[in-house]
Input
Amino acid sequence: MEGRQEAGKENKPSSRPVDAQGDSSLQVEISDAVSERDKVKFTVQTKSCLPHFAQTEFCVVRQHEEFIWLHDAYVENEEYAGLIIPPAPPRPDFEASREKLQKLGEGDSSITREEFAKMKQELEAEYLAIFKKTVAMHEVFLQRLAAHPTLRRDHNFFVFLEYGQDLSVRGKNRKELLGGFLRNIVKSADEALITSMSGLKEVDDFFEHERTFLLEYHTRIRDACLRADRVMHSHKCLADDYIPISAALSSLGTQEVNQLKTSFLKLAELFERLRKLEGRVASDEDLKLSDMLRYYLRDSQAAKDLLYRRLRALADYENANKALDKARTRNREVRTAESHQQLCCQRFERLSDSAKQELLDFKSRRVSSFRKNLIELAELELKHAKASTLLLRNTLVALKGEP
Amino acid sequence: MAAEREPPPLGDGKPTDFEELEDGEDLFTSTVSTLESSPSSPEPASLPAEDVSTNSNGRKPAEVVLDDDREDLFAEATEEVSLDSPEREPILSSEPSPAVTPVTPTTLIAPRMESKSMSAPVIFDRSREEIEEEANGDVFDIEIGVSDPEKVGDGMNAYMAYRVTTKTSLSMFSKSEFSVKRRFSDFLGLHSKLASKYLHVGYIVPPAPEKSIVGMTKVKVGKEDSSSTEFVEKRRAALERYLQRTVKHPTLLQDPDLRQFLESSELPRAVNTQALSGAGILRMVNKAADAVNKMTIKMNESDAWFEEKQQQFENLDQQLRKLHASVEALVCHRKELSANTAAFAKSAAMLGNSEDHTALSRALSQLAEVEEKIDQLHQEQAFADFYMFSELLSDYIRLIAAVKGVFDHRMKCWQKWEDAQITLLKKRETEAKMMVANKPDKIQQAKNEIREWEAKVQQGERDFEQISKTIRKEVGRFEKERVKDFKTVIIKYLESLVQTQQQLIKYWEAFLPEAKAIA
Output
């Protein structure tokens, strides 16, 4: 199914959980996106006066796999070990929506033409919403990179933004996926091992606090996100329910006795409008609440990853210390042990310093994002509730007014 | 249906006039109209409108007449039955409602009726407004409440007892406010008695709430969970609506069984209502037999009105069923929404607890509180969805089944008349044969039989015309009630939706400053 998205042209989805205000020296946005059979092509537009680039304005077409490649490149780079790597955008997933549209097409002969048209409209709107979201997620990823003083200078990033050709990054095959999966397991095991290591004392209260905080926070935000999704889903079901009700009321109205005719027809109209409002409530909750929670779920995971790397560095430092002690007692290879220990120490301290800054940034980012979205959520809920009230009141007046 | 007749605009052109006009039209189409003539007092004058009947009406005797005849059967009711009693007015709006219900419809009261026949114009001497008022306003000064479900007994013999409270100013009741304890089978017993008396003569008797073996078993077994409380509440509300509909029917209100049900502290246990009893099985067999009969009766419908009406009710039935199914889905999803909102509220609270930024933490806790309140709101709305909208629809689906039943009875009545005519013909043939064969004693027998069957044919015709007439009135009344019912409930339901939205506004308005306060 084809769909074009002119992300730059229309009002930017303020649903973005992160306010990526880069300075003007590097501005990145996704100006266009096309959805083809099973992939989405994003047009990434860059405006920059940085000397590194050949032009001041240029654009390339990228697919989801290339974003993942970029993300992994950052993660694997030792230089950025002390930074929170912005979470990779989720894969565009139109599967569910596509299935629903297909089911509708195969169809249920018991629904009327109007019902069918409405349901189709609903599903198309859903598809479009998913599309917009995936564009926003990919855009936010790039914009955070562009805003970060260190990350924006990465060579791979420049290649991603500028290189006109296809990056020839195929999607991970099964072996690689499995590898990634195993790596995660190894990482968690390692983390568990490190933390239970005796003698590994967390010297810094700040990090001790952050670790406890992040562990709990991550679990709870995951929970909240899942449940917010369910609420949103229920709202959607409710909105969809109004379709057959409106249709049934409409056909009742056309067949009924005069006294009830107008009542039923007005009621049918009311439910049709309520459906639209309910649908908007559902999508606003999705954008302002679910999406925000989901983003911070991923971001808090990235923060956890940072803490893990620091812990790993601390463990290495401790091990280096022990090795140095051992070397000194044996009086063998002391020099190597010393330099190794020095290296570990430097690395650890470097990581700690930048991690501290990153975590503070994470907190302020989180707070301002929550604030913005909660305010917008409340304002939108109010707007819809007021519209519903007006609609209902008008209908009541009309119904009471008749004999 | 009166609506189609488009009554000419009357004084104030209120739609309720059409009912009066129906009676008027009946008066015109029938050569003999019977009216109670008591022009002395205004209230009893309303009675004539109700008692309009066609030619050979054997079934609507005037109250005055019946009083004497039926005294033995209605010992309790005697004091109320005076035609001139002013309390009559509220109950008897514009329908025929003899104090005594035709328990034995074949009783011939025709001769008496004819002697009482008056000229039609009497009804039009009254002002239109007067008629409207009676048809319109607070005609039924009787309120029924069903409350306080109480479990009586233990184990499988346990049952729920409900308190039935009546508040009325009608003089036919000995007190103005009284209450009794009844169980579900009592209600079923009442319905079964009323149905057996009135259904086959064309009255639309409101159906009783349905049995539910599963629901009741849960209650008996003592499960104190929310589903059995919900079940009991659903049943209580249904019983209340059932009684309210029954007393609204002017004829049924007069019925002594109904009065006994409402008033007397002890009621003989209605065992025949049990599904697996002998009577229950008999009922099922009869229902099956009826269904078969219906298919085989081929009636010559001389009156297009009946065919039209039947079609209309058939359509209405289908539409209501469709709507009902959709509304049930709505109720289900709204309940889900409520549950999901509650779950989210909890996790938002947990998240708020973990959040180490104080202002954000507080805001998240506030969000959790708002969501919890909203979950309550959704639950209440789901109840409104169900009890107002969904139950209204299911009540009417069953009421329409009763209406269809009444039409079927008319068909059976016609069949009986047809059969009588056929038999009469046969008897005449027999007589002719006997005349030819010259068997004097057989001839006499044949003549006797002919006389017998002539009477039966006449009765059959009268019965058929009576039931047709009753059905017309009943359908008119039913439709009027239905319009009122639907309109009232729709408005109530919309008001509940408005309420919900207004509460939502309140909650979010309270939350907004909290969100803004995050620094």
